Hints:
The chain is of the alpha+beta class. It is built from 14 helices and 34 strands. A hairpin with a 2-residue loop joins strand 4 and strand 5 (127-128). The longest helix has 21 residues, at 507-527.
Amino acid sequence: MTLRHTALLLAALFGLEAAAQRVQPYPVMPPPQFLRAVEAGTRTATGEPGPDYWQNRADYVIDARLDADTRTLSATGTVTYTNNSPDDLEHLVLKLRQNVHAEGVPRNRPVAVTGGIDLGRLAAGGSDLEDVTVEDTAGSYQGSVEPGQYTVQGTILTLALEDALRSGESIDLEVEWSFMVPPHTGSYRQGTDGEVFYLGYWYPTVAVYDDVWGWHVDPYLGMGEHYLEFGDFVVLLDAPADMLVYATGEHTNADDVFTARTNQRLAQAMTSDDVVSVVGAGEHATSMTPTDDGRRVWTFESDEVRDVAVSASAAYVWDATHADVDQDGDGTDEAVLINAFYRPAGESPYDAPWERSAEFSRFSIEHLSEMLWPYPWPHMTAVEGIIGGGMEYPMMTLIGGDRTDARLFSVTYHEIAHMWYPMMVGTDEKSFTWMDEGLTSFNTNEGIDAFWDGSAPNREKIEAWDRGRQSHYFLAGTGYAVAPMRHNDRYPIGGGTRQVDAVGGSARGVASYSTPAVALNALRGIYGQNAFFGAFNEYGQRWMNKHPYPYDLFSTFEDELGDDLDWFWTPTFFDTWTVDHAVLEVERTEDGAVAVAIEDRGMAPMPAPVRVTYADGRTEDRTVPVQTWLDGETRAYLGFTPGEVVRVEIDPDTFVLDVDRTNNVWTPSNE
Length: 671
């Protein structure tokens, strides 16, 4: 007997009329630019990089000086930009992200106006370029540029080359710049409070020119984050001698900077299972080598990263340990240095258990390396201060605010999980924020479940996937939710305090963080742990050190799982459709079997797993396949073996994105 025949018989048993045909999700429709990339062979319909995939790169050498008294950063740098595209480039685009602090520049978050970047010199191929910026119309349209000229429009600098940069060629850009480090009260993701200096988006970067869109010239407005090319970095920072400095990359002059005792403690941290105090309170003067002029130069070098950040403070203490990671894939673990820089309790403006930071970071690196793929870099460093949340950069994270142990762990794991997305898998954070925040939020919940497992008094049990912890359900079905497939700068930003606008300011966070995370958890529930992580990690491995688009992720999952999943992607990622499955009726057939009627009251189709529990303790599981809903039905009928039923529950493992679980359970008392 066919499933359709069975359904008709069960419908007749219940005496239910045929339900109306349901609405169907529309297919995923990649934009013309992406389809052209597939035709050109740089992308594929199966989610892999195409045979002709290319990617430009930018390598940086930066020599900087930090003046703590005046809170200014001045620097010179050389950017070697390589054009691997098939196109000849007559213009280059730089992003001056610090100009979000310049007067008159468009932005979508309040900031301190400190002047932005002052460009002292810009040269291409050894020839100085002429600045033709119209000074009195900052941030407005300012015409075009001729060869040998550049213009600045807010955070975007466009320059015209004397000779086009041919395919396969490189060019050196020489830059001199300076800026006032913004105060932490008028900045985010970086700044200073007078004690801690954290330098983020602090140097001119070459914009991404990719195979789908070309130049990405959307300005930095403050809310949306970044899309950056990969490259190698050499950073030299001249800082006051009493400051502890750490940055993205290998610290290459540790022997010049640290005393023998400090280097010995660092060596101990690389072998000991304990957290080692490398520099304690009051030890700065004896931890670093003496200088004649009260200043010290720190050098860091990094390969294949998309950004660099620098932390500097004379108030920090320094804890260190190591994580064991099989970086080479040969079955032997390498030691990854784990650093925690923070102000001691009573000296920090925040109340947080930073003495556990190194412990939390070590667990995060080891757990993520096992769950995803090995962490590739020499260190992971967490620093305390100046912001209310957390912010990630390659090998570095900045964390502030008052926090319990669980909350410090959560933000630490989340920011470290960003080392995989977007630091290794180089997504466009501005256009598709969910591709890094949503995947990272999924990984964070996995990390919380693994660490807070109740195994010790200081590791109490936390159910990370509990629906009460998922903000997706706060907005889903209310009419206030916004789809994840939206540019970060185009979300509602809110217009008042939470008393009068509890939704506006949270739409971006829900859409970018929570909705993709619970959607991935649902996909894991549908296909199982092994199949899901096989597809999840295949996507990451395919696009490591590359620039994926959402369609690459969607297609990779479909390629690995063997199914067309448009029914899954479009309702939740491109729209805000919701799921609502309900137990409609439970009856006993003439032969004693149990018949259950399930109704689909939502718009988003999703399988409906159903569990029947019998009086003798037995359970039996059946699932209404998603194809039933895709065939247009809104009701489905399941048969179970005979027995006295005490409970029928839809989605007993709580992975389905059901917005109303009050109708998911039937018991005899419901009748």
